[in-house]
Amino acid sequence: MRPEQWEIFKRAVRREPQAAVPLALIVDSPWIPGYLGISHLDYYLDPELWFQANLRIVREFPDIILVPSWWTEFGMAAEPSVLGAKIRLWPDNTPSVQHTLYRLDDVTQLLDYDVRTDAFAGLTLQRIRMSRDRIHAAGHVLPLVTARGPLCTAAFVRGTTEFMMDLVDDPAGSHALLDLCTGVVIDWLRAQHEVMGGDVEGIFILDDIVGFVNEQHYLEYAAPYLKRICDAFPADWIRIYHNDASVDACLDHLPDAGFNVLNWGKQKDIREVKRRVGARMCLMGNVNPLEIGVRGTPAEVRQATLEVLAGAGGEGVYLSVGGGVSPGMPGANIRAMLAALAEYNAERAAG
Question: Would residue 307 count as lying in a domain?
């Protein structure tokens, strides 16, 4: 994103009056290679192609705040690969992760890690080093460091089904694994900050596995670790939380963890989300990303966009989809969102 777009983003978080509601979209490798007609493997492994692909996106959609900005990632491989998960690469899809922690008692064997050198984390940091100055020269900044959350990382390393069972069958072991994963997340965010430099003013945490637990388990197994992550960084930083699974269990508690921006899924109407979090969080949502964003017509996208904006009320909100931009979302539907937003902002300005 450009520096002025980051300033717009921050003003919305601070709930300062703005002339227009902004559009912010999470874009990454599930969407970009398919949209541009290139191989995922080439996108990940060819630094020049990666740079040119992202440059094409920011030039094609200059009026959209792209979050987190030139995202250097290998799907969801970085964090679990640090802890020894097996990563499989595919020519036309994001990498898949296969768990390798078959016994929860073996978690102590994973303590010897270094996010600066290990597996896909080390590769990600090198890509950032290689591209940072060119990104700046193109007129953009890197204001956010990004990580999968502790439950998401734990589920990759242990296996989602196994981890869900552990929460009931082995609370002590589950906490030991979550403690380790939280340390990895914090170290990973700090390592990115070291490489990106002074642009960074926020963290972006993605943890859909939080959507798989009830409120009691959220408070026990998620809240303390999410708060620990938020508390590890300066108090004035932006803290974005993404979960496009269910947010029922965590919604009322996320501000207490320290997050001030929420990107959630299609399941919950923006009016209810706004009612429950009030002015405690800025909302980033939530046009249906699949049935509308990918499969809908531009006319259907326009209608859904206007419905979300009507529910949002114009304050403390960025228009977005309910999650990241899904694979296969056509440019025409993104432009339909922009057009509907321009229509809404014009009517709002006219009073």
Answer: no
DSSP result, 6-51: HHHHHHHHTT---SS--BEEE--TTTHHHHHT--HHHHHH-HHHHH
In angstroms, the CA 125 to CA 143 distance is: 15
**Under 8 Å between Cβ of 66 and 1:** yes
Sheet holding 317-321, edge to edge: 144-148, 202-206, 238-243, 261-264, 282-287, 317-321
Q: Tell whether 315 is covered by a domain.
A: no
SS (H, E, C) 97-159: EECCCCCHHHHHHHCCCCCCCCHHHHHHHHHHHHHHHHHHHCCCCCCEEEEECHHHHHHHHHC
Mean pLDDT confidence for 202-224: 98
Inter-residue contact 74 to 123 (CB < 8 Å):
yes
Q: State how far the Cα of 25 lies from the Cα of 209, in Å rounded to an integer.
A: 21
Task: Tell me which residue range forms the domain holding 68.
Answer: 3-264
Look at residue 313 and tell me if it is in a domain: no
Q: What is the DSSP string of 262-298?
A: EEE-TTS-HHHHHHHHGGGSEEEEEE-TTTTTTTS-H
pLDDT digits (tens, 9 = 90+) for 249-266: 999 999 999 999 999 999
Q: Residue 230 half-sphere exposure, CB side, CA atoms within 13 Å?
A: 21
| Overall average pLDDT of the 317-342 stretch | 98
Q: Using DSSP, how many helices (H) and how many strands (E) does the chain show? A: 15, 10
The one-character DSSP state at 326 is P
pLDDT higher than 90, residue 140: yes
- Helix, coil or strand: residue 348: helix
Q: Are 142 and 196 a contacting pair, CB within 8 Å? A: yes
* Residue 296 belongs to a domain: no
Q: At what angle do helices 171-196 and 160-169 cross, to 10 degrees?
A: 130
Mean pLDDT of the chain: 97
Nearest to 59 by CA among 51, 328, 263, 322: 51
Angle between helical axes of 119-137 and 171-196 (0-180°, round to 10): 30
**Residue 148's domain is classified under what CATH number?**
3.20.20.210
User: What is the count of structural domains for the chain?
Assistant: 1
Q: How far is CA 92 from CA 87, 98, 307, 330, in A?
A: 15, 18, 34, 17
